[in-house]
Design brief:
Strand content: 15-25%
Shape: globular
Structural class: alpha/beta
Mean pLDDT: 95
Helix content: 40-55%
Number of domains: 2
CATH architecture of the largest domain: 3-Layer(aba) Sandwich
Number of strands: 14
Low-confidence stretches: none
Bound molecules: nicotinamide-adenine-dinucleotide
CATH class of the largest domain: Alpha Beta
Length: 357
């Protein structure tokens, strides 16, 4: 039996998570696996109910689970709270830190039937299959922060971008393991021409490239990488980079696949993996049945692959999503003339039925 902590969160999180559960239940039925789902509060919903975005019971449930399925958190009504109580700073960052989730994996895969949904030309996109690995618990988001009023007027704010050699080594090691299972190409991204933390990153990446000769390693400055992702994304197999650069590059890469609603993610490194779509809580469409749940369903596929080692089951979920698109079903974010418009719940039902076939 696999114990799954379910954290729907806020906004569309509440709508998309049940659809991923439908897919997992369909897999359970087909292959004879038992999944036990236990739900807990996180984010704004938790703040409203118990006064903190990451209640201790939620953290305890996550620690005891075999994997975590998260929807999304946040929304305008919680943005004015003191910073430690805001959903992202008060829940998401400490959850990653507490669980030791130092690696965020975001595959950018293209479903053939969505080639036309991207803003980029089809000939640029054909064959794109990238895995971006972002360091998740170091760098500017977790470094020292200062904010002061200056004597002569004005203010000064500082975020320190700090990395230790062991933090860099463990994420690059994970990237080599990942590259070895894919196209055996790794691009390490930094800003070593300007930043001290990037100079350390580059020094370690160069040393590790020599220790991993079976994988072709390249090094790229982050500004160049941002440009290359749009110019010629096919050149990339696995990209590894630090927290802030990864945050930006993964959103950029997401646009290759047409919609944020298609991008899954896995956060790994600790005892329990956390799986969530790459997008946020989309307050603008929440509660209307318009949210695309495929990123969450594909995150559940990553859970099957990385936490439960069920590769065939993971593939079946991905194939069902592909089939759903091939049959011309579309949520509003992907809608084009001549396609069949479906709601969030209908999407989950159709994908689950395709899995069970
Ligand atoms: P967002 O990702 O929520 O939405 C950006 C745009 O994409 C919106 O127009 C939205 O409607 C659309 N969109 C996103 N997911 C979609 C889906 N599954 N189907 C269809 N359309 C989708 O980003 P935002 O608007 O910048 O942030 C909204 C809230 O989410 C904020 O409070 C932010 O802090 C939070 N957020 C949370 C996470 C997380 O939980 N990991 C990540 C990013 C943002």
């Amino acid at each position: 039996m696999f114990k799954i902590a379910v954290l729907p969160g806020d906004g569309i999180g509440i709508e998309i998570v049940p659809e991923a559960i439908k897919a997992l239940e369909a897999i359970g039925e087909k292959f004879g696996h038992k999944f036990e789902f236990t739900e807990a509060l996180i984010g704004g919903a938790a703040y409203d109910e118990v006064g903190h975005p990451l209640p201790p019971e939620t953290l305890r449930l996550c620690r005891e689970a075999d994997a975590i399925l998260l929807g999304a958190i946040g929304g305008p009504q919680w943005e004015e709270l003191p910073v430690h109580l805001r959903p992202e700073v008060g829940a998401l960052l400490p959850l990653r830190k507490e669980l030791g989730l130092y690696a965020n994996l975001r595959p950018c895969m293209l479903f053939p039937s969505l080639l036309g949904a991207s803003t980029l030309k089809e000939e640029v996109l054909q064959g794109v299959d990238i895995m971006v690995i972002r360091e998740l618990t170091g760098g500017a988001y977790f470094g020292e922060k200062h904010h002061e009023n200056l004597m002569g007027g004005g203010e000064k704010a500082t975020d320190c971008m700090t990395y230790t050699s062991s933090e860099i080594e463990r994420i690059i090691n994970l990237a080599y393991d990942t590259a070895r299972k894919r196209g055996k190409k790794l691009c390490s991204v930094d800003k070593a021409n300007v930043l001290e933390s990037s100079r350390l990153w580059r020094k370690i990446a160069v040393k590790m490239a020599a220790e991993n000769p079976d994988v072709e390693t390249t090094h790229m400055y982050v500004d160049n990488c941002a440009m290359q992702l749009i110019r010629n994304p096919r050149q990339f197999d696995v990209i590894v980079t630090e927290n802030l650069f990864g945050d930006i590059l993964t959103d950029e890469a997401s646009m290759l696949s047409g919609s944020l609603g298609m991008l899954p993610s896995a956060s790994l490194g600790g005892q329990v993996g956390l799986y969530e779509p790459s997008h946020g809580s989309a307050p603008d469409i929440a509660g209307q049945g318009k949210a695309n749940p495929l990123a969450t369903i594909l995150s559940a596929a990553m859970m099957l692959r990385y936490s439960f080692n069920l590769e065939n089951e993971a593939r079946l979920v991905e194939e069902a999503v592909n089939e759903f698109l091939e049959r011309d079903y579309r949520t509003p974010d992907l809608m084009e003339a001549g396609k069949k418009l479906v709601t969030t719940a209908e999407t989950g039902d159709i994908v689950a039925a395709l899995i069970k076939r």
